[in-house]
């Protein structure tokens, strides 16, 4: 009895599969497999912020006077103790000379009074001088001694005032504004020179109130400045200011970023990823298992057993955060424990047979 055409076709396909099966197994592409695992991943929050000067001050004189010399201009770099400007100090110098002369006179009078005291004390032993005369000279010694001490204090004050006629840099930094000229009369409180310290830069970030309990001093952060997008900085939360903005319900966070090469400056914007004091359990794969296409999409080669063989199928996924060599998988198309190609995924084709290597 002859079979129908359909039964003949089924028999032919079965025979063909039996013949091709060994051939596909021999041509299977060797690959190294990995599995989707679940790990604890540190939660992060992404925020925006801006840099501010670590130290900032307007320099002002401590005495009033006429500006006689300016040693800086906008953009001048200063070290701690460098001279910024000088006021005319001639009158202060004359005051020092006057006080010095007063000290010399007091010293001379003191020596004379001490000499007469000693002479009278010797005569007093033989009752050749009255007691009143001795007491008078002893009082004179005390008075002149006090006058000498007063003059010495006035000299210290005069020297200090003379030094106030020179304005020094209180810390190292850059002069960003100069608001005076030679010949100008200035007074204490006048803002003359603005100085910024930028060898360390301070970053100020506003933290939404829902993250306030999860961020504390010492939390780690990754920082990227928009001016240097290719470079990533690391930092720690220096302070969490416990006074929020009533309108935005946010709280300031402060970071200090070393800036020894001065590639950064106050006023720059930055993106900050702060590690929260919380962890998620997420699905993860090694980075090498992820293929990024030219259009930015990402895929993995998922391996399943089909027709008694391991075969690879492309699967588009979405990725999230990184932890070392592992990346978070956001797609729900792949499940825990499923196998994907780790190595050897460069030239695979859909439904291609693969051979797992140890």
Provide a short characterization of the protein structure:
This protein has 358 residues and is α+β, with helices and mostly antiparallel strands. Helix content is 25%, strand content 42%. Residues 1-21 have low confidence and may be disordered.
> What percentage of amino acids are in beta strands?
35-45%
Ends distance: 52 Å
Q: How many beta-strand elements?
A: 21
- Within CATH, the superfamily of the largest domain carries the name Efflux pump adaptor protein, beta barrel domain
Topology:
Blueprint: H1 5-26, E1 29-35, E2 37-59, E3 65-70, E4 77-78, E5 83-87, H2 90-125, H3 131-163, E6 166-168, E7 173-178, E8 185-186, E9 193-208, E10 220-225, E11 233-236, E12 239-240, E13 250-258, E14 269-286, E15 291-292, E16 298-306, E17 309-317, E18 319-323, E19 326-329, E20 339-343, E21 352-357
Parallel strand pairs: 1-21
Antiparallel strand pairs: 1-20, 2-9, 2-14, 3-5, 3-8, 4-7, 5-6, 7-9, 9-13, 10-11, 10-14, 12-13, 14-19, 15-16, 16-17, 16-20, 17-21, 18-19
Helix pairs in contact: 2-3
